[in-house]
Specification:
Layout (H helix, E strand, L loop, with lengths): L1 E9 L2 E7 L4 E6 L5 H11 L16 E8 L5 H9 L7 E8 L5 E5 L2 E3 L1 H11 E4 L10 H12 L2 H48 L5 H13 L1 H17 L4 H12 L9 H28 L4 H21 L4 H67 L6 E13 L2 E10 L7 E2 H4 L2 H15 L7 E5 L7 H15 L4 E4 L3 H4 L4 E10 L2 E8 L2 H13 L5 H12 L1
Parallel strand pairs: 3-13, 3-14, 8-12, 12-13
Antiparallel strand pairs: 1-2, 1-4, 4-5, 5-6, 6-7, 9-10, 10-11, 14-15
Helix pairs in contact: 2-3, 4-11, 5-11, 6-10, 7-9, 8-9, 11-13, 13-14, 16-17
């Protein structure tokens, strides 16, 4: 609910504050007094384009603030504030500033926001209907919301949307798997060939590295055997073998080991060296016995290495382990081809189940909407006659859409015939601004208690009507204001008489400067203002009496 609007330095408004009632607020005034300026200022906090030319005083900034009560904020507003990390305080303050340089800034509870955020928030707070605006009444989403509100579909629609999202996600998974299968199918033969090639090669861990080492031994066997034989000869078989020299040294020191404190340790070390050298000789002899050069073996190793090097080069790797990793990865891909059919079947089954549940719920929603069509048409058409459109007819068409949609299976269209011609056409194509405004009033009065409507502002909804039709518009608006805050700019006394709070917009001249002001009228002032609307600047006694009756009733 818009509790207060504060304006500074805008157009011909120097400083102005308006405190609104929570029910029906009426704004009247002479043509040109500044009612449209008031709405222009309000438009700034609704996210409309700012213009530095609108500043009254060019040396200071323009500030427009809207104060909204948080007691009755609906869930959508609270969710928006939470998602955008904006504070929820006792009062929601939306502020717009325009500097003399033309720069514009917007704030929500003193937190800076961009115009996109401001537009989203303001659409949840204020519903502004001006005579020549493109109204949401012609939009299919609003038309669907009307039927859902009357049908009490809120809970069902929320459940359906959850199922719809799950179904869409299941379809995306299924499509992805099917695409993956196609990709697998295109690559299967190539992957199979590569896997078979590596699998048939049958390389074991570190095999190529080991074979390379074996080949080096085989090709250098003669040199290795010569070196080993020489080593063994020097240790064991030369004229003065190393082991015999060590044994001789040990025997020479043995008689004196007890005569010098360092000799026992030294003798022990020499004996250890003797034992180690003897062991080395045995190991040299053993290795020498196993070193052989076999041409057949060399040929086999070369063939094996040739195959290995070819595969290493082909796959751009350097080690046996990397080749084995590639083989295992290819095996995994081939196995995935075998498994993907099961995954596709499971995904298709899940998508089908979700589709069935969503379709059943969508059909239930559709049936509930269809039940509301005839009552809605009947009530709206009756109200259209009350508001001065006796020949106008609304027709609601609920037809099957192309499969499941985000809001169900229905395509909903409001058709309109202004002159009983029998030619119904979409609202957005045939209804005039005045007709749309009154039609919107009729529809919203029917769904006010069912939809989370924000503050409703009607700008001269009474264009082209008078007398009884204007009186009926006033009655409808009064009923609507029982459930929602309504602000109405009007020239009709019959509508003005229904207000819970009456604001009078006027111009005043101060030091050759024209300024717009607004004041709340008391009961006597309202009677006089309405009488002037009935009979002119100097109201007659009959007009005053008629105005009094309007106000008191």
């Amino acid at each position: 609910m818009l509790s207060r609007l504060a304006i500074q330095n805008y157009a011909i408004i120097d400083q102005l504050e308006v405190d609104f009632s929570q029910n029906l607020n009426i704004i009247t005034g002479e043509t040109g007094a500044g009612k449209s300026i008031l709405l222009g200022a309000l438009g700034l906090i609704l996210g409309r384009r700012a213009d530095a030319g609108a500043l009254l005083h060019r040396d200071r900034k323009c500030i427009v603030e809207g104060f909204f009560s948080t007691d009755a904020l609906d869930a959508a507003v609270l969710q928006f504030l939470q998602e955008e990390e904006l504070d929820v305080q006792e009062e929601l303050v939306v502020r717009r500033e325009i500097t003399p340089a033309g720069k514009s800034r917007a704030f929500v509870n003193d937190t800076p926001v961009n115009l996109s955020q401001l537009n989203q928030l303001s659409s949840l707070l204020v519903d502004l209907h001006q005579q020549f605006d493109t109204l949401e009444l012609g939009e299919s989403d609003f038309q669907r919301q009307v039927l859902d509100a009357l049908a009490g579909n809120r809970a069902g629609l929320k459940e359906y949307k959850g199922l719809f999202v799950q179904w869409q996600e299941a379809r995306r998974r299924l499509t992805a798997l099917e695409g993956q299968k196609e990709q697998f199918a295109r690559e299967f033969d190539y992957h199979q060939f590569q896997f078979n090639e590596l699998d048939e090669a049958g390389f074991k861990e570190n095999e190529l590295e080991d074979l390379d080492q074996q080949l080096k031994v085989q090709t250098n066997a003669e040199g290795i055997k010569n070196a080993l034989s020489k080593a063994y000869y020097e240790i064991e078989e030369s004229e003065t073998p190393m082991v015999r020299c060590l044994r001789s040294i040990t025997n020479g020191l043995q008689p004196f080991r007890d005569l010098h404190p360092d000799l026992p340790a030294l003798v022990q070390r020499i004996e250890s060296a003797y034992i180690e050298l003897q062991d080395i000789a045995d190991e040299v002899d053993r290795i020498n016995g196993h070193v052989n050069s076999d041409p057949a073996t060399i040929e086999q190793i070369n063939e094996r290495l040739s195959l290995g090097y070819k595969l290493l080069k082909k796959h751009g790797v350097k080690t046996t382990a990397e080749l084995l990793d590639i083989r295992n990865a290819l095996g995994g891909k081939l196995q995935a081809v075998l498994n993907i059919d099961d995954a596709i079947a499971a995904a298709a089954k899940e998508a089908e189940a979700l589709h069935g549940r969503a379709l059943a719920l969508a059909q239930k929603l559709s049936a509930a909407r269809s039940k509301q069509v005839a009552p809605l048409e009947k009530k709206v058409n009756a109200m259209l006659a009350q508001v001065g459109m006796p020949n106008a007819r609304l027709q609601v068409v609920v037809s099957a859409g192309t499969g499941l949609q985000e809001t169900g299976i229905d395509d909903i269209e409001f058709l309109f015939d202004a002159n009983r011609s029998g030619q119904f056409q979409p609202l957005r194509k045939v209804a005039s601004g005045g007709e749309l405004s009154r039609l919107m009033l009729c529809i919203k009065s029917l769904v006010a208690t069912s939809m989370d409507l924000p503050t409703l502002i009607f700008d001269e909804i009474d264009t082209g009507i008078s007398g009884e039709a204007a009186k009926q518009v006033g009655i409808i608006m009064k009923d609507l204001a029982g459930a929602r805050q309504v602000i109405c700019i009007t020239h009709q006394p019959q509508i003005a008489g229904k207000g819970d709070r009456h604001f009078f917009v006027y111009k005043s001249v101060n030091a050759d400067t024209v300024k717009t002001s607004v004041r709340i009228l008391n009961t006597d002032e309202r009677i006089v203002a309405i009488a002037k609307m009935l009979s002119g600047e100097k109201p007659t006694a009959a007009a005053l009496e008629n105005a009094r009756e309007m106000v008191m009733n």
